[in-house]
Amino acid sequence: MERLWSPWRLAYVNGASGGSDSGCIFCRSDEPGRDELILIRGRVTYVILNLFPYNNGHLMVVPNRHVATLASTTGDEQAELMRLTRHAEMALTEAYTPQGINIGINLGRPAGAGIVDHLHVHLVPRWNGDTNFMTAIGDTRVLPEGLAATRDRLQPIFERLARNER
Fold it and tell me: Which residues contact 166 (CB under 8 A, 6 or more apart)?
């Protein structure tokens, strides 16, 4: 397999490897620079852009509290996780018109979790043919839209959905 060097991912790997709240990148979402990735904050959860997206529009719904499993969440956290996951699905559908959306939770490293100790729901918009030779042969994703443009496209939709819910 060819290698594509991405030294900027070291910050992600170092941040994702910690097991304590203080080392958790989701618990540090209030740090300067991270807020620009957050699309909306609920009372006990928030929606954030994935810093290393699989596709444009790759979002995560995250509880504020440092919990690793659904079994560890409160009823309020579960309800808001699902409500914001629903809003994320609606926003992605409106903004990108995907042909499908992967929605999933990876519990534990063997299940594919990159950040094991803080539960999060992934939403990844999908299109027929969204994997091409770069993905299949080069093991590399090409994303045509930057994170700032993704935020600018999605944030007004989330704000409208929140207003309409009141």
Answer: none
Candidates 1.10.3430.10, 3.30.428.10, 1.20.120.160, 3.40.50.720; correct CATH number of 9-165? 3.30.428.10
120 is catalytic: yes
Query: What is the C-alpha separation between 139 and 158, in angstroms, rounded?
Result: 32
d(CA 154, CA 85): 14
Among 58, 87, 118, 120, which one carries the catalytic annotation?
Answer: 120
Tens-binned pLDDT, residue by residue, of the chain (166 aa): 455 555 555 555 455 444 445 679 899 876 656 678 999 999 999 999 999 898 999 999 999 999 999 999 999 999 999 999 999 999 999 999 999 999 999 999 999 888 999 999 999 999 998 875 555 455 566 778 999 999 999 999 999 999 998 7
pTM: 0.81
Residues near 5 by beta carbon (within 8 Å), at least 6 away in sequence: none
